């Protein structure tokens, strides 16, 4: 009996009895949401791949720089240089300490000599006292120079100190330096320190 009717009309009657529009709208919305999700996921993956490629390039550059630095670094040369600098530092500190001790000793000797002179009444007076102090100062400077290995010679005609003999124990040589007043004391101090 049912089969006597046209199947198309049967299907049409069934369709009218069921409300499929809300389901179809829901399916359309679901497909649209899935499409948006796929496009967002694709764009996120693209940006992550770009970031990863950039990070890989940075890592490769850093690894190359590290390899070059590691190959160029010589630990033996480095330790030798550190040892040499430590030795020089301690030698300079020892020389500075010895100079401080010598300066204190000479200052005490000068103080004792001045007291003895004042007790004896010698060297009293304006110019005589100043000349004695100048001589003591010059004597002290000459002693310090000699302790460093520098002998200063005075000119026979003028009496000015215009020649220095520098003896370097480290280098094992002797240099004679003519002091020219055109150059500053700073220049000669640096020159003497370099020569020692």
Automatic annotation (TrEMBL):
InterPro entries in the cross-refs: Ndc80_Spc24 (IPR013252), Spc24_Fungi_globular_sf (IPR038066)
A GO BP entry is:
cell division
Q: Does the keyword Coiled coil apply?
A: yes
Where does the UniProt annotation locate this protein?
A: Cytoplasm, Cytoskeleton, Microtubule organizing center; Nucleus; Chromosome, Centromere, Kinetochore
A Pfam family reported for this protein in Swiss-Prot or TrEMBL? Spc24
The UniProt entry, under CDD domains, shows: RWD_Spc24
Record's keyword annotation contains Isomerase: no
Keyword list (alphabetical) reads: Cell cycle, Cell division, Centromere, Chromosome, Coiled coil, Kinetochore, Mitosis, Nucleus
Return the GO cellular component terms, semicolon-separated.
Answer: microtubule organizing center; Ndc80 complex; nucleus
Q: Could you state a single Gene Ontology molecular function term?
A: microtubule binding
Q: How does it assemble?
A: Component of the NDC80 complex.
Report the PANTHER family cross-referenced here.
KINETOCHORE PROTEIN SPC24, PTHR22142
Function as written in the Swiss-Prot or TrEMBL entry: Acts as a component of the essential kinetochore-associated NDC80 complex, which is required for chromosome segregation and spindle checkpoint activity.
Family affiliation: Belongs to the SPC24 family.
- Under which name does UniProt file this protein? Kinetochore protein Spc24
The record lists the lineage as:
Eukaryota, Fungi, Dikarya, Ascomycota, Pezizomycotina
């Amino acid at each position: 009996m049912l089969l006597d009717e046209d199947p198309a009309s049967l299907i049409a009657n069934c369709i009218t009895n069921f409300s499929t529009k809300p389901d179809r709208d829901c399916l359309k919305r679901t497909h649209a949401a899935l499409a948006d999700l796929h496009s967002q996921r694709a764009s996120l993956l693209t940006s992550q791949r770009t970031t990863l490629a950039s990070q890989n390039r940075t890592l490769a550059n850093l690894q190359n720089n590290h390899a070059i630095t590691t190959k160029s670094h010589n630990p033996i040369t480095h330790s030798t240089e550190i040892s040499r600098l430590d030795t020089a530092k301690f030698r300079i500190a020892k020389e500075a300490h010895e100079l401080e001790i010598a300066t204190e000793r000479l200052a005490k000797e000068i103080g004792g000599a001045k007291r003895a002179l004042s007790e004896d009444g010698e060297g009293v007076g304006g110019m005589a006292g100043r000349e004695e102090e100048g001589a003591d100062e010059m004597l002290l400077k000459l002693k310090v120079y000699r302790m460093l290995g520098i002998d200063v010679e005075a000119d026979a005609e003028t009496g000015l100190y215009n020649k220095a003999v520098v003896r370097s124990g480290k280098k094992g040589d002797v240099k004679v330096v003519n002091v020219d007043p055109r150059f500053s004391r700073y220049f000669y101090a640096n020159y003497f320190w370099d020569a020692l």
